[in-house]
Every structure is written in C-alpha cells, then in structure tokens.
C-alpha cells in the first residue's frame, strides 16, 4: 500500500523540502563570477525570473546583469517614492519607456520617476521613447541635462520641429532613430531636419524609416553630417537629386532605400559616386537590372540586397558579377555568399 509522501509547500513537487528549498543555498556556494559569466548568459528570460525568486542573493546577481531598464507607464505610479535605478540595476545603460493601454508616459511622471537616479543617469548611454506618444521637448531637455554620456536616442514617433531642435543640442549623440517600422511618420519633414546640422560633430547613424515627408531637400542639408556612417531612408520620398548630395560624405558605408519609389536607375548612377558605400538595400525600388551596372563603380560594395521580388536577368547577373568586392547578394529567393577563398580542386 502506497503511502503519500509529504510535498513541499513551495513547489508542490518534491517529496521533501530539502530538494528545492536548499537549492538557493547550493547556488550561494557558487562563486558570483561563475554565475554571472557562465550561468546567467545561458538562461532565458523566464528562467531568470524564476532564478530571481530563489532568494535575495540570486535576485541581486540577476539584477547586476540587467542591461536594459523597461519602464511601462502603468508602473510609474506604483514604484516606491525615492526609487534609485542605479542600486538594483548597476550595469544597466539603456532606458526604454512605453505607453500602456491603461496609462501613458508623460513628461512630469517620468521626470519625477528618474529624479532620484541622478548618478545612474550620468552613465546612461541609450534612451528609447519610441512608444511614448505624449512626451514633449521638456523631457528631452531633462535628458540632455541629466545624461551627459547619451549616445543613442529614439524619440517619440510624434517628435516635431521643436523636438528636433532640442535633440540637436545633445553633446555626444551618435545614433538617432526618427523612423518607425509600423506606421508612417508625419511630423518629420525637410525643414525640421535642418536642425540636425547641430550634430555634425558626432552623429554616425540616422534612421528616417517611413518619414514620408522627407525628400531630396533633406539630404542636401544632411550632407553636412560629415561623420555619418549609416543612413536608413526606407519608405521616404528620396530620389536621384537627393542621393547625389551624399557623394561628399567620407564615412557613409550603409544606405537602406527599401520602398523608395523615386529610386530609379538614374538614382543608382548617383549612388555610384558614394565611394565608401559597402552595404546597399534596394528592396521595393523602381531600379532595374540595367541600372545595376552603375554599382560596379563602387570599390567597397560588399553587401547588396535587391529584395525577394527582384528577378535577375543576364544583364543584372553580369553587373553584380563585375562588382569587385561583392560578397553577399540577396535577390529573389536566394541569398548568395561568395566564399572567402577558392576550394582546392
């Protein structure tokens, strides 16, 4: 006759408490460096949540590995007064705030929440406000004064001319994402982008995806960003005249032109003068196989993405085969990679 074994009140699984309740003590015996360098990197997010619950020591180890602090709007009012983010998350260098269905991030609420984390803000390098739809330049002014090391910024998708003027005053900004993957941006236009010339000393990456009112005139202004390396112009109104303005940028190695319906063979002819170009995306443009011949003039082009709908013919194949440094070609259903060396026959 089987006798029921007593189950642990915590896990309701093991016959005795020693198997699960002492696991925290066993983990305490491991060196912190081993847990942080070998155990935590192999854990999923859900595993880390469970691991944090074993005991306060494990919670502290997990918190020390956190790199991004997420701040949902509905959590702002529930956090204890005087919360200092630098204490539970000393290694975090990224802040991501976002609206919820039942609450929205506001300038006053987020500034109040961050006010007690002055020391942590001084080490912050990235802020993502893309899904905060009710913030204003007041919050940007606070971040500029509080985050002297800020390198990456994704402002609200409703950023306007006033927001751009505020962003242009950040002293060390290297990456700026003004675009959106899911919805058109209607508050960013050519005139507003003139403010970004104030970042000519630092800006290296600029995202303008789905900024529908950005056209050739904007690039005539952005050519003053001499340190620019990566430019996302997908789903904008850019055409040949604007692309011709990029020829003077000495460090521009990546351009994304996905969905730009004004990019034709004439535009590819202009791109041939952007000599540092190494990565180019042409998905959904009006360029054809005949225009690919212009890319042969790019001495550093290594990656070319033509999109899944592009059908390479003999003319196109001959053109891409003539690109001296091309290593990766995505066209149609194929992703072709040139081997680094020829196999010995």
SSE blueprint:
Layout: H1 18-21, H2 23-28, H3 32-39, H4 45-52, H5 56-65, E1 68-72, H6 73-76, E2 94-98, H7 107-114, H8 118-121, E3 126-131, H9 137-146, E4 152-154, H10 161-167, E5 175-177, E6 185-189, H11 190-193, E7 205-207, E8 211-213, H12 216-222, E9 230-232, H13 240-244, E10 254-256, H14 265-271, E11 279-281, E12 303-307, H15 314-321, E13 328-331, E14 334-337
Parallel strand pairs: 1-2, 2-3, 3-4, 4-5, 5-7, 6-8, 7-9, 9-10, 10-11, 11-12, 12-13
Antiparallel strand pairs: 13-14
Helix pairs in contact: 9-10
What would you note in describing this structure?
This protein is α/β, with parallel strands linked by helices and 345 residues long. The protein is 29% helix and 16% strand. α6 links the parallel β1 and β2. α9 runs parallel beside α10. 30% of the residues are buried.
């Amino acid at each position: 006759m089987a006798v029921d074994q007593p189950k642990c009140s915590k896990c309701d699984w093991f016959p005795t408490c020693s198997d699960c309740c002492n696991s925290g003590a066993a983990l305490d015996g491991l060196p912190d460096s081993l847990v942080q360098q070998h155990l935590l990197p192999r854990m999923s997010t859900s595993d880390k949540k469970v691991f944090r619950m074993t005991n306060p020591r494990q919670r502290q180890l997990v918190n020390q590995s956190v790199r991004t602090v997420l701040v949902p709007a509905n959590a702002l009012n529930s956090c204890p007064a005087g919360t200092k983010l630098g204490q539970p998350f000393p290694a975090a260098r990224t802040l991501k705030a976002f609206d919820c269905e039942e609450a929205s991030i506001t300038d006053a609420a987020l500034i109040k929440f961050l006010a007690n984390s002055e020391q942590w803000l001084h080490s912050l390098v990235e802020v993502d406000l893309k899904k905060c739809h009710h913030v204003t330049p007041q919050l940007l002014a606070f971040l500029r004064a509080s985050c002297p090391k800020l390198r990456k910024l994704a402002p609200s998708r409703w950023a306007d001319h006033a927001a751009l003027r505020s962003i242009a005053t950040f002293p060390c900004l290297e990456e700026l994402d003004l675009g959106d993957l899911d919805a058109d941006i209607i508050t960013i236009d050519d005139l507003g982008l003139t403010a970004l010339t104030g970042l000519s000393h630092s800006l290296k990456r600029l995202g303008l995806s789905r900024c529908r009112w950005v056209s050739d005139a904007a690039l005539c202004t952005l050519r003053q960003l001499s340190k620019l390396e990566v430019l996302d112009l997908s789903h904008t109104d850019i055409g040949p005249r604007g692309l011709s303005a990029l020829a003077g940028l000495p460090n521009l190695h990546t351009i994304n032109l996905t969905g730009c319906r004004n990019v034709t063979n004439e535009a590819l002819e202009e791109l041939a003068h952007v000599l540092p170009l190494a990565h180019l995306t042409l998905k959904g443009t009006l360029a054809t196989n005949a225009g690919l011949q212009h890319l042969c003039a790019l001495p550093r082009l290594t990656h070319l993405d033509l999109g899944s709908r592009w059908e390479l013919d003999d003319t196109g194949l001959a053109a891409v085969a003539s690109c001296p440094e091309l290593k990766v070609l995505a066209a149609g259903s194929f992703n072709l990679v040139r081997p680094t060396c020829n196999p010995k026959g």
